[in-house]
Structures are given as C-alpha cells and as structure tokens.
Amino acid sequence: MIHPTAIIHPKARLDTTVQVGPGAVIDEGVELGAHCVLGPHVYLTGQTTIGARNRFHAGSVIGDAPQDLKYTGTPTRLRIGTDNVFREHVTVHGGTPFGGGTTTVGDHNMLLVGAHIGHDSTIGNHVVF
Predict the structure, then answer these.
(1) Which of 76, 79, 81, 7 is closest to 38 using CA atoms?
(2) Is 72 exposed, middle or buried (0-12, 13-18, 19+ CB in 10 A)?
(3) Which one, of 22, 106, 18, 19, lies nearest residue 58 by Cα?
(4) What is the pTM (predicted TM-score) of this model?
(5) Interior CA angle at 84 toward 15 and 86, to 5°?
(6) By CB neighbour count within 10 A (0-12 exposed, 13-18 middle, 19+ buried), where does 10 fall?
(7) Can you say how many angstroms the Cα of residue 38 is from the centroid of all Cα atoms in its chain?
(8) According to the model, what pLDDT value does residue 86 have?
(9) Could you give the CA distance from residue 58 to residue 95 in angstroms, rounded to a whole number?
(10) Mean pLDDT, the chain cut into blocks of 10 residues (129 residues total)
C-alpha cells in the first residue's frame, strides 16, 4: 500500500509488501526489503539498503548526507538490517569516504524519539538507543 501523496523515485527499489504513508519521500538510491512500513513524512535518501520488517515512524530522515565539514557531496552509504524500529524524528546519516564509507545499523534495534546515528557509525544488534 502506497499513499497517493508519497513521492517515490522510479529507480528506488521497493518490495511489493512495503507500506508507504502520506507525504513520505523515497529517493533513487534506496532499496527497501519486505514488510517495511513508513509512516507519514518519512524521508529515505542516499545509497541506502534496508532489510525486512523495519518500521519508520513520522518524520524520520534516513540516509541523508553526513554532518561533517570535510564532506564534499560524494554519495553516502547506509546499510540497515532487519526488524528495527525507528521512532518519530530519528535521523541516520550515511558514511563518509574518509571514515570507512558506510554507516551500519544491525538487527532488532529500537531507536527512540529524536535519536541520531551519525556518519560512519556501526550499531550492533538488540540495542535500544
């Protein structure tokens, strides 16, 4: 189910079971696994790969450019595992070329309201943030 006000780039790759809420935006380099759910006004961008059964609540921004003064606009990468919950207004930024290149979030994590995962971070499994 995709809400008619969602904006999804034609090259984004979404499993047929993905649900997208009103006002959500999904950019070109995003890949979403089975049974993911996006709430209203979720923004997915960057070179972002998301596994199965992740839930993104209202206002989350996932895969955006790093907050780093050395960052010059090169593509960023973000990898998210399975069964994670991203509560309202969570931000997760992609990696930088000089910091390893990829931000990684594992499996079965709960990122609480307003949490921020900065560039080049690695979050394991079963973490409450």
Answers:
(1) 7
(2) exposed
(3) 22
(4) 0.96
(5) 100
(6) exposed
(7) 10
(8) 98
(9) 23
(10) 97 98 98 98 98 98 93 90 98 88 96 97 97
Find where tokens 């995962």 sit: 117
Distance of alpha carbon 113 from alpha carbon 102, whole angstroms: 23
Dihedral sign, Cα of residue 80, residue 31, residue 39, residue 53: negative
DSSP labels for the chain? -B-TT-EE-TT-EE-TT-EE-TT-EE-TTEEE-TT-EE-TT-EE-SEEEE-SS-EE-TT-EEEEPP--TT--S---EEEE-SS-EE-TT-EEE---TTTTSEEEE-SS-EE-TT-EE-TT-EE-SS-B-
Q: What are phi and psi of 51, to 5 degrees?
A: -75, -165
CA–centroid distance for 122 within its chain: 14
Q: Is 11 exposed, middle or buried (0-12, 13-18, 19+ CB in 10 A)?
A: exposed
The residue type found at 115 is A
